[in-house]
């Protein structure tokens, strides 16, 4: 009886334990199921959100790959399926944009470059007054007559002289012809150094034309000499060097021998002079200043024909020689040759000498034609 009662208790207790264990296992299974369901719902929502964002980005944006050719990736619209590796069907629409030509920077046309007025004129001081002028007449190798700003006046070349030409009329004429070739009838630029007008009324200037520094070219070609003229000294060193080069190269007046066959022939439109054709009418040998710039010799054409004066000479007892430039003197016309003044109404001839020429105590004036034939003499006591 007792054993039967004990076994009955054990069996009951075992059933209770089993029942409890089963209940616990069932609860764990239910909890696992609930957790799995929750995780599934969360995962589905996550996938749904990502898909929505991808679709949104594909429908609103066009991706452009970096390319130096400027070709765009085709634009995908919201209704366009994402291309796959298979060949698209007839219902697949792919919009292909035309290649975009890369935008090149605008072509910049360079501004025209202007050649410097004169490559060798760097010695001229910057910002010096200058003006454009029209050359009306070439007086000699270092002097011209110009019109500028409605004024007519003579211009002398700064730093250039003809002192070495006094004994050689042919070379003197060649110097004038060289100057004529450089500036005759042309528009030139006149540049001032320090002084504006000298004592004789001429305007000392540097002369530039067509990229040529005329002052320098006259010296470099050997048809003029370097002559320092204070206070206009900016280019003295350059001129001295150019003269040395001309001497070494035996150019112009530095040549070993002049051309022996050169002959001066009057222009066909005028009559060659004969003895007595030109008459010296007087010499004014006294001036008001010690330099006596207003001294002059006056002469007249006594013929009925015009006479070309080119190559004629006027000199005194001390052999101060004036060589006439190209100039046609009409019948009965008077002209004067001043010592150091410029008078265009009297033909504009001048020695441009800084010191007196005609002796106050007596002198003689000799007028010769281009063939060195004495035409007239005028002496005074």
Explain what you see.
The protein has 381 residues and is of the alpha+beta class. Among the domains are: 130-254, Beta Barrel (OB fold (Dihydrolipoamide Acetyltransferase, E2P)); 278-380, Immunoglobulin-like (Sandwich), CATH 2.60.40.1260. 25% of the residues lie in helices and 22% in strands. The protein has four helices and 18 strands. Strands 1-2-3-6-5 form a five-stranded mixed barrel. The protein has a four-stranded mixed β-sheet with strand order 9-10-15-16, with no helix packed on it. A four-stranded antiparallel β-sheet has the order 13-12-17-18. β6 (203-209) and β7 (212-213) form a beta hairpin. α3 packs parallel to α4. The longest helix is centred in the N-terminal third of the chain and has 59 residues, at 2-60. The termini are far apart. 29% of the residues are buried. Residues 1-5, 60-78, 84-91, 107-117 and 258-275 have low confidence and may be disordered.
Taken in chain order, the helices and strands follow as HEEEEHEEEHEHEEEEEEEEEE
User: Tally the helices: what do you get?
Assistant: 4
Mean pLDDT: 76
Would you identify the CATH architecture of the domain at 130-254?
A: Beta Barrel
CATH topology of the domain at 130-254: OB fold (Dihydrolipoamide Acetyltransferase, E2P)
Largest sheet: 5 strands, mixed, barrel
CATH class of the domain at 130-254: Mainly Beta
Computed structural class? alpha+beta
**Helix content range of the residues, please?**
10-25%
Strand order of the largest sheet: 1-2-3-6-5
How many whole angstroms does the radius of gyration measure?
54 Å
| Number of beta strands | 18
Structural shape = rod-shaped
- List unreliable stretches of 5+ residues: 1-5, 60-78, 84-91, 107-117, 258-275
First-residue to last-residue Cα separation = 197 Å
Content of β-strand: 15-25%
């Amino acid at each position: 009886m007792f054993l039967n009662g004990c076994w009955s208790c054990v069996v009951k207790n075992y059933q209770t334990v089993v029942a409890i264990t089963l209940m616990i296992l069932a609860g764990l299974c239910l909890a696992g199921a609930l957790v799995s369901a929750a995780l599934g719902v969360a995962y589905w929502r996550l996938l749904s959100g990502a898909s929505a964002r991808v679709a949104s980005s594909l429908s609103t944006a066009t991706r452009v790959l970096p390319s130096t050719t400027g070709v765009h990736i085709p634009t995908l619209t919201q209704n366009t399926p994402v291309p796959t590796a298979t060949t698209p069907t007839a219902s697949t629409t792919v919009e292909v944009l035309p290649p975009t030509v890369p935008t090149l920077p605008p072509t910049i046309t360079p501004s025209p470059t202007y050649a410097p007025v004169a490559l060798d004129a760097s010695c001229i001081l910057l910002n010096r007054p200058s003006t454009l002028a029209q050359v009306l007449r070439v007086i000699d190798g270092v002097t011209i007559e110009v019109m500028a700003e409605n004024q007519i006046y003579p211009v002398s070349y700064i730093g250039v002289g003809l002192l070495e030409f006094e004994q050689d009329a042919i070379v003197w004429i060649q110097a004038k012809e060289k100057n004529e070739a450089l500036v005759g009838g042309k528009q030139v630029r006149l540049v001032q150094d320090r002084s504006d007008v000298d004592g004789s009324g001429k305007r000392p200037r540097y002369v530039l034309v067509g990229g040529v520094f005329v002052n320098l070219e006259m010296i470099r070609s050997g048809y003029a000499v370097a002559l320092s003229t204070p206070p206009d000294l900016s280019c003295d060193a350059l001129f001295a060097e150019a003269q040395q080069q001309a001497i070494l190269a035996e150019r112009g007046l530095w040549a070993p021998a002049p051309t022996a066959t050169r002959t001066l022939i009057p222009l066909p439109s005028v009559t060659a002079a004969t003895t007595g054709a030109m008459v010296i009418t007087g010499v004014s040998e006294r001036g008001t200043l010690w330099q006596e710039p207003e001294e002059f010799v006056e002469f007249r054409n006594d013929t009925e024909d015009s006479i070309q004066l080119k190559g004629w000479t006027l000199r005194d007892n001390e052999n101060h020689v004036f060589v006439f430039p190209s100039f046609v003197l009409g019948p009965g016309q008077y002209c004067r040759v001043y010592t150091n003044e410029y008078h265009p109404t009297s033909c504009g001839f001048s020695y441009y000498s800084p010191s007196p020429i005609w002796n106050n105590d007596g002198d003689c004036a000799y007028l010769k034609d281009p063939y060195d034939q004495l035409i007239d003499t005028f002496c005074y006591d």
